[in-house]
Amino acid sequence: MEHSEMSIADYLAVEAESSGKVRSVLECCEGYPARYHFDMPASSKMNKGSAVHCALLEPERFAAEYGVYPGKVRRGKEYDAWLVETGKTALLASEFGVIEQIQLSLERKPKIKQFFATAEMVEHSYFWTDTETGLACKCRPDLITKHGIKLDIKTTDGKITERSFSRTCVEMGYYIQDAFYTMGVQEAMGTKINTSGCLMVQSKPPYEMTVYLYDELYKRMGERQAREGLRIIAECKKSGVWPGMPEIQDVTPPAWME
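Structure (tokenized):
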């Protein structure tokens, strides 16, 4: 099932397995109930990332829903009055300046701009039942073009070199998220994803951006681990046992350090 007009708040309210849940149990099963049985406030970093997403994917909605708060901090009576008066999400002048620089950077990237120009589905919500485990699942890809290319947008204050991305991709499980989204879109709509990747965007000078497209090895590894995560969730829900991490572990330097 696909929903094109569902808000992010309504999407988050739907009880279903997500890529975040799948990735969390691959790290530690005990983290699943601890993290997802309570409402957790969004961090300022998450809010900044949401603003960048909106500015790049839906510039008209960004202009309508976000505004520049003239104060230095988002608190106090003046801030509360500004929220009531404008009805907008507040960005500090410095934050808005960063988003303007990112938008200007995109204008200098004709090949990346083409992904946005050919976008057919932007932040659509997808829901399906996993055939193997019977679990209800959901996903919300950032962008799918009319050519079947799926992109997810990630912002970072750090480097976006291939070496840096490779480490972050593995540590954060971006490739698992990508596979889970691909599974979801194809299960929910029968839509074939021909190519998928990640648009990395720097949120500090020089505000560079680049798209990394996943190769077949990343895709196979991502799907294998996404399916393993779903199996773990199903088994833990059935047993009621959510194992934690080992209390003591040996460690050795990773291969890339040699």
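The longest strand covers residues 149-156. The mean pLDDT is 91.
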